[in-house]
Amino acid sequence: MAHHTCDFLIIGNSAAGVTAAEFLSAAAPGKSIVMVSNEPYHCYGRPLISYLLEGKTDREHLNYKPADFYEKRGIQTMFGPEFEAVELDPAAHQVKLAGGEEVAYGKCLLATGSVPFVPPIDGMEGRTNVHTFITLDDALDAWGDAREATERAHAEGRESRVVVIGGGLIGMKAAEALSHYVDRIDVFDRSPRILPAVLDEDGAAVVARLMEPHGIYCHAGMSIDEMLGDGDRVTHVRRTDGADEACDMVVVAVGVRPASKLAVEAGAEQGRGLVCGPDLQTSLLDVYAAGDVTQVTDMLDGSQRPLALWPNAVRQGRIAATHMAGLPGALPDEGSFAVNAVDFFDVTLLTSGIINPPADGGFDVRVEVEGDEYVKFVTRGDRLMGYVLLNRPDHAGMYTAMIERGVPVSSMATDVFDRAPLNIDFPQGAARMHRGYPSSKLDEHGWPKAEGEECHD
Fold it and tell me: 304 and 10 in contact (C-beta within 8 Å)?
């Protein structure tokens, strides 16, 4: 049994973990860093796996750091199924890996991300043509199955059909990617609309209508109760209305859950995600967490929930690293809010903040509809709280900055909700300032610079 020792152990090799590793290598020179992951790959952009299937990117460009990223920074990597962290002993400051190796650490960062939530559906267990769509391997498996399914279907003189269970962002991106290889895709979601977390009913209806020319048909308010078939393959699904639907394969994309099992079994406190202090340290001494695995404070409504978004993972990875490195005046984690940018074929969708406000919350809503464009602004008092920009991306960055910085709408020199070209400076004092750091010590993103090396997200 091999034993390893390091100053910093990072479990996870995606946005939060990679950001933390990069920052630690610069902020704590001479300290040893070990990264472990159950995936065998160089860090890749999970949001890009659908684009790989569509041919919009290739395997090489899926990686978002240079090939020498780890070596250049002296980061020891242990990637692959045998290096999955299976047991955390916070008292001994030690982690056991699936292959039997052990890693002793000074401080540990849990950047384990999310795992797909797979609901219990009768007839699903053991089926080889049922897929999730979170990792690169998930996408490649689904891709291969879709192509083979279409070959079989066409040889039999029929169209190939895929069922996607879940009409959220992951399910809809899976549908888009696979639509290039099969004839018809039916998307089911129990919610009364698709994309329930990022759209309202009217906006979702526009997206659903625009998907149909691409062979994607959305069924809101309906899901799947049972999978039927011969042997190890599903050939039909039974809908919640009792009707049977023929299919060649199924993608389950109901949602994700924080991958917190390792920490919880070690005694870490968990709410809707791992509970962390302002320094992103969990309830376990010297064990920190960042990204999808954490419970985040929504800075707009104060709710506590996971925020499974790439920008949040990057932000938390850097904050955690500053505290793990012991930098003076390290910033606390003060929460975040949702920001989404996604496209489906030629449909663009940008949403942020509170988009479905409660009726009794003192919110005002402004909606503009023109053809396939749908725009919604949510304000409370003099502050922008959220927006939906469907097929009208104008000024999205400015709107997000207004939400983040609390810029009064009345302080702007023109109607900021108009799509006309704008050239606006924010009022003095609206820009975000980081306590304890003079401006000369901040990088172009407003983050503390690491001594001796420039840091990039």
Answer: no
How far apart, in Å, do the first and last CA atoms of the chain sit? 36
Task: Give residue-wise pLDDT tens across range 109-128.
Answer: 999 999 999 999 999 999 99
Backbone angles phi, psi at 196, to 5 degrees: -65, -25
CA dihedral 53, 55, 60, 66 (to 10 degrees): -100
Instruction: Please check whether residue 161 is in contact with residue 185, taking contact to mean a CB–CB distance below 8 angstroms.
Output: yes
Characterize the bridge pairing of strands 256-258 and 287-289. Answer: unpaired
Provide CB contacts within 8 A for 346, sequence distance 6+.
none
Cβ-proximal residues to 135 (8 Å cutoff; 6+ apart), any chain: 39, 46, 49
CA distances from 102 to 75, 111, 219, 285, 368 (A): 17, 18, 48, 19, 58
Q: Measured between alpha carbons, how far is 12 from 67 in angstroms, rounded to an integer? A: 18
pLDDT tens by residue, 414-439: 788 887 655 555 554 444 433 333 33
CA-to-CA dists, residue 413 to 15, 66, 248, 409, 421, angstroms: 38, 43, 56, 9, 13
For 40-50, b/e burial (b = at least 16 CB within 10 A) is: eebbbbbebbb
